[in-house]
Amino acid sequence: MAYQTLQQEYLQIPVVTRAYTTACVLTTAAVQLEIITPFQLYFNPDLILRNYQVWRLITNFLFFGPVGFNFLFNMIFLYRYCRMLEEGSFRGRTADFVFMFLFGGILMTIFGTFVSLVFLGQAFTIMLVYVWSRRNPNVRMNFFGLLNFQAPFLPWVLMGFSLLLGNSIIVDLLGIVVGHVYFFLEDVFPNQPGGGRWLRTPSIMKMLFDTPEEDANYNPLPEERPGGFAWGEGQRLGG
């Protein structure tokens, strides 16, 4: 009975969020069990181009380090904001969501080459948080019960928290930059005088991923608690 309930809850997670978070957890589990090593996963342009180890273009986004506080912190925020984006502004637009993944991943890979980053999963999480925060500017956040701020400041708060933990902020800055580029091209520039839509999801992706029918049993996460787990609680202004 418990297994069926767990399976049902798992299958209720939207498909892109479910696929990405599952891949991240399984990759970390494989490293913990010493089935594979991080040396087989990290981003290395030379090995990709000369040895054709093209899987590194994907696997460097799936490994968040050994199981510990940093891993759990990243997984919770990845799951939470990826799911809220997919169930919110990307509801019924799975192809557009996958296209955002591809756009962000490609841009991070290009930038990562110049700043010598070997794992880009954390930057990708920050990108998702950034896009969500800019699309929900009126949500008031509470971080660890210590800080109160508006949602657009959340990526910067996370960067500060990362700095306090002794981590490099280059990864967080990369996520913020890529998130801003996507948000500007998708949400800002098309609405400017003389602007236009530069990001267009290919028709073949829409045919593959978009489904016209709504699931009557679909149960999206409430956005009244966007931070989740008492780490970044929030409520909409005026609510």
From TrEMBL:
Domain of life per record: Eukaryota
A GO biological process held by the record: ERAD pathway
Segment forming the signal sequence: none
Membrane topology: Multi-pass membrane protein
SUPFAM superfamilies associated with the record: Rhomboid-like
Record field: transmembrane: 57-79, 100-133, 153-185
Pfam families in the cross-refs: DER1 (PF04511)
GO cellular component, one term: endoplasmic reticulum membrane
Entries under InterPro entries matching the protein: DER1, Rhomboid-like_sf
Keywords: Endoplasmic reticulum, Membrane, Transmembrane, Transmembrane helix
Places the protein is found: Endoplasmic reticulum membrane
Family the UniProt entry places it in: Belongs to the derlin family.
Function text: Functional component of endoplasmic reticulum-associated degradation (ERAD) for misfolded lumenal proteins. May act by forming a channel that allows the retrotranslocation of misfolded proteins into the cytosol where they are ubiquitinated and degraded by the proteasome.
Designated name of the protein: Derlin
